[in-house]
Every structure is written in C-alpha cells, then in structure tokens.
Amino acid sequence: MNPAHALDNIRIVLVETSHSGNVGSAARAMKTMGLARLYLVSPRCQIDDQARALASGAVDVLEAARHCETLEEALYGVVHSAACTSRRRDLPHPAYTPRQAAPELMSMARDAPVALVFGSETFGLSNEQLMQCRWLLNIPANPEYMSLNLAAAVQVCAYELRSLVDGNVLPLPSFEAARHEEIEAFYRALETTLVDLDFLDPLAPKRLMPRLRRFFARAGLEREELAIWRGVLAAIEKAKNRPD
After folding, report:
1. Domains of the chain by range and CATH?
2. Higher pLDDT residue, 131 or 34?
C-alpha cells in the first residue's frame, strides 16, 4: 500500500470527550493531515453547531464519525493501538514519543487498521482503558505544565504520521552557485572599493577582508546574488566619481 493510503488505516479514537468543540477541532486537525477515520467512544457531548464551526472544512470527517459504546468496540479489527497519555503510570507498556512511534505505526497501517486513542479532557484514560492498548504515547512537554488540549494532541500525533508520507518534504529552491574565480574577482573588487572609500587601510588591513570572506562564505553566494553585489560596487564607484 502507498504510504499516503496507509493514513486511511489510521483510526483516531476519542474516549468520553466532554466538549463538542474539541471533537470539531480534532476533526479539523485530522483532515489537515489526511486522516478521516474518527471514532467516538461514549461521548459526553453532541455533534452540535459549535463542533461543526470548529471543524471548519472538516465537517465531513465529523459527520462520518463512528459512535461506539466501548473502547473495545472502537478497537475491533485493529492490529495495533497506542494510547496518548501524559503519565506513564505503573503499566508495563512500551512508551514512545509520537515521533518515535510514527514509523512503526505507519508501517503496520499499510496492511491493517491501527488506532491512536485519546482520553477525556478532564480525566484522560483510565488504567483499564490503557491496558487495552499496546503502546503508550507521551508528547514531550513542559514538565511544569503538561496540560495539552485534546485537539492539539491529535494534531501533534497526526502530523508525525503525515510527515512520513513521501513527497511531503518541501523541495529546496534551485540556484546556481557562484564559481570560485567569480567570487575571488568579487573579493578583489570589494577590497579595491573599500580602499577607495578609506574604509580599509591597505597598510594596516588587520582582519577586515578575512572576516568579510567568512561572512560571504557562510551566506553561500549564488551567481545572481554575486551579480547584485558587483552592481552595488559599480554604483558606489559611479557615485564616488560623480561631481558634487
């Protein structure tokens, strides 16, 4: 299965969500990353106008959500499940960050359904619910304030999954690097101009030119940029020779 299609096998399971706005925001977070399978386990809210408003263009994900009475029902048919929690608790489960877990989750999702489970805003997931999942997901956060919004947690996990899809890396803009001899000619012209402006004393140059070389070396000059700088030097020379 194409990695992009593996996203079709990712279930986002929200357990006992109490705020409809969070359901809508989670649906939006999902759709922005290409996820569409939303499962609601015993929700404590309705799909109301607030949910639809916060879902924005993801109302289709919201309306297609599957309602389940139990977490067991929502996990039926999956080959793997990972529960998002801020606490390790006294459980034997392997625990990973979303970034660590994403490659394996996507690999499994190429062949069969996989679920990411999120608890209620107030209480999170109970130990019993966590025991039904195979992994724990811990989102790295400020240890002094680890209260992450439900939809934000969904967004973080969905992003890590999406980032593994081929073609998501933005291509670097192409440019033509300046050649060595062109850069050296520019340095000679620059030095000459600085001497003419009495900015550089050729008898006591100190480290001005080496520092300027280091500055431009860090920038990585392109041919077009070099042409601009040569134009600047030409304009300076023209202005210097202009009658007052």
Report:
1. 3-162 (3.40.1280.10), 180-240 (1.10.8.590)
2. 34
